[in-house]
Write a structure and sequence with these properties.
- The complex is a heterodimer of chains A (about 140) and B (about 400).
- Chain A is mainly beta.
- Chain A has two domains: about 45 residues, no CATH class; about 80 residues, Beta Barrel (OB fold (Dihydrolipoamide Acetyltransferase, E2P)).
- In chain A, about 10% of the residues lie in helices and about 35% in strands.
- Chain A contains two helices and eight strands, in the order ααββββββββ.
- In chain A, the strands form two sheets. In chain A, strands 6-5-4-7-8 form a five-stranded antiparallel β-sheet. In chain A, strands 2-1-3 form a three-stranded antiparallel β-sheet.
- In chain A, a hairpin with a 3-residue loop joins β7 and β8.
- The two termini of chain A are about 20 Å apart.
- By secondary structure, chain B is α/β, with parallel strands linked by helices.
- Chain B has a nine-stranded mixed β-sheet, with helices on both faces. A two-stranded antiparallel ribbon of chain B has the order 5-6.
- In chain B, α9 crosses α13.
- The longest helix of chain B has 16 residues.
- Chain B is globular.
- The two termini of chain B are about 15 Å apart.
- The chains are: A mainly beta (about 140), B alpha/beta (about 400).
- Chains A and B meet through β4, β5 and β6 of A and α7, α8 and β5 of B.
């Protein structure tokens, strides 16, 4: 599933904003950051300034272990978007991290025959262009 | 099955116990429905389809454009309701432009019922038109902007619209053993209804289970046959108070109950996946108000942009236990002659899907209850239920209609 991506186009895909730019900055340093609420003790993802559980704004960025399990997945066979047209088939999964948040990512180093609900996975970082690093997940090798 | 007397009694009971809401609903009726042309309409604009559908619905009700004082419409562009009002030459004094995707129309019925019952307007027009099929063929697509906000965390992974539904389908398969063949049975039921509806896109194009299971894979486990058709078209519904409805020509269809609920937008935030909690909540409210239960429903219109949506909705509304919807579909219950006639016009899977199609659920339900459904008429249909689902299994609106 390794495909060379047109990196220039990727630079224009995302418009990071004050709530998300720290996440992408963390990814560039190979850290997967989630927001943790010091008031109620729960983490959340995607990142918000204030906690969606208790509305406290006493939240901070915390790196997670990067370990989790596949909650569900799909193998995309059709996508007309120029950045993904040539990549099919590729896997998109919902991954439940051990820290209690659910994230979306591609599964890499993994074929559609191997993936299943409950598959243990770990984060890896994919560099797409100079600016953008994307966290991905791969099966944990035993 | 339920007779109208029992239904009416239950409405009275519910209003006595539950206060004014049920009484409010019972005072509002659908008095006109209409559709524009449908299919591939490269020479018609979306606004033109709004006008065509509105004209048909007002004619059906025996009303004139100047009777409309409440406008309920939604679309993709800025200030859509203003554009539609101006184009149609309307000057409404009540406007609601709630946009929650395909379910918007079931939400808007609930809002129209409240507005009419409160005396904020006297004639409510719900109207929709869209030309996504022609727009796509002309490559007139919205420009691709850089993705902002939370959508970044899906966009960077190439999660497509069908892919989102596929995540729910895969999880349902994992939890309950639902099969691709059971999903195909939903597509087959829609296609069989479409053979009875000359306006359906797939009319004259029968499908078999094997055709469905051999169709192109889009996002595993969903294939082309699991996905809705893509058409141009429009629809309109006119509502007024029961008191005014008595003086109009169309057979009034009383709104017995409505409910709406929202659970998430992005799939990672849907904690209860694959339980369609928004449908459960909206259904509970609508059933309660109407004083009916799933076993009383004679004909069912369920949003079906993909097959899995129908299965999740049947479970959430209580038409079967969690996990039993696949077997229910495979038994043929949803098909013509089945125990639970569902999407009797052929639905989004086989009839039409012009962007959002929640309004067509209401139109078909009203036709069934008025006995106007021709060769696809469900005998003795007295209670119809419409559940629209919008976003990505995110927002559900339920409307119970009677006779």
């Amino acid at each position: 599933m390794s495909v060379t991506r047109p990196t220039a186009a990727w630079a224009g895909l995302l418009a990071p904003d004050p709530e998300t730019e720290s996440f992408w900055a963390g990814a560039r340093q190979h850290k997967f950051l989630v927001r943790h609420c010091n008031a109620c003790g729960r983490s959340h993802f995607y990142p918000r300034h204030a906690c969606p559980h208790c509305w406290s704004d006493n939240c901070e960025w915390r790196p997670v272990s990067g370990h989790g399990r596949v909650f569900s997945y799909t193998v995309i066979h059709h996508n007309e978007h120029p950045l993904f047209r040539e990549r099919v088939p590729y896997i998109v999964a919902l991954v439940d991290l051990v820290e209690g948040v659910r994230v979306t990512a591609n599964l890499v180093e993994c074929t559609p025959e191997v993936v299943h609900v409950g598959l243990p996975v770990e984060v890896v970082y994919e560099q797409v262009g100079e600016e953008l690093t994307v966290p991905q997940f791969r099966p944990i090798r035993r | 099955m339920i007779d109208s007397v029992r239904a009416a009694a239950r409405v009275c009971e519910a209003s006595a116990v539950g206060g004014s809401i049920a009484a409010m609903s019972a005072q509002v009726c659908i008095v006109g429905v209409g559709e524009s042309d449908s299919g591939h309409l490269p020479h018609k604009s979306a606004l033109q389809l709004h006008q065509q559908a509105a004209h048909a619905a007002l004619d059906d009700a025996g009303l004139r454009p100047h009777d409309v004082d409440g406008l309920f419409t939604c679309g993709d562009e800025w200030a859509h309701a203003l554009l539609v009002a101006e184009y149609l030459g309307l000057h409404p004094t009540y406007v609601d432009s709630t946009q929650v995707g395909g379910a918007s129309w079931e939400f808007l019925v609930g809002h129209a019922v409240a507005a009419l019952a409160a005396g904020r307007c006297t004639t409510a027009l719900l109207v929709y038109g869209g030309t996504p099929r022609s727009d796509a063929l002309r490559r007139r697509r919205p420009p691709e902007h850089a993705v902002r906000g939370p959508a970044q965390f899906e966009a960077v992974y190439g999660l497509t619209v069908v892919g989102k539904y596929a995540l729910a389908a895969r999880r349902h398969m994992h939890d309950y053993g639902t099969t691709s063949r059971q999903l195909a049975a939903v597509a087959l039921a829609a296609n069989r209804w479409a053979q009875l509806n000359p306006r359906a896109l797939h009319h004259g194009h029968p499908l078999t289970i094997d055709d469905a299971l051999r169709s192109r894979m889009v996002a595993e486990p969903l294939r082309q046959a699991d996905c809705c058709v893509w058409t141009d078209g429009g629809g309109a519904v006119v509502l007024t108070t029961a008191e005014r409805a008595r003086d109009l020509r169309g057979g009034p269809v009383p709104v017995l109950g409505t409910g709406e609920a929202v659970s998430h937008l992005h799939l990672s935030q849907w904690d209860s996946m694959p339980d369609l909690v928004a449908a459960a909540a909206s259904g509970r409210r609508a059933f309660e108000q109407a004083g009916v239960s799933p076993r009383d429903v004679d004909v069912l219109q369920v949003y079906d942009s993909v097959t899995i949506m129908v299965l999740l909705t049947l479970e959430a509304l209580g038409f079967c236990e969690g996990g039993a919807s696949g077997a229910l579909a495979e038994s043929g219950a949803l098909e013509p002659g089945g125990a639970l006639p569902t999407n009797t016009d052929g639905g989004g899977l086989a009839a039409n899907h012009p962007g959002t199609r929640g309004i067509f659920l209401l139109i078909e339900a009203a036709r069934q209850l008025r006995g106007d459904a021709g060769s696809r008429q469900v005998p003795n249909a007295r209670i119809a239920l419409c559940t629209g689902t919008g976003g990505f299994l995110s927002a559900c609106g339920t409307v119970v209609l009677g006779t």
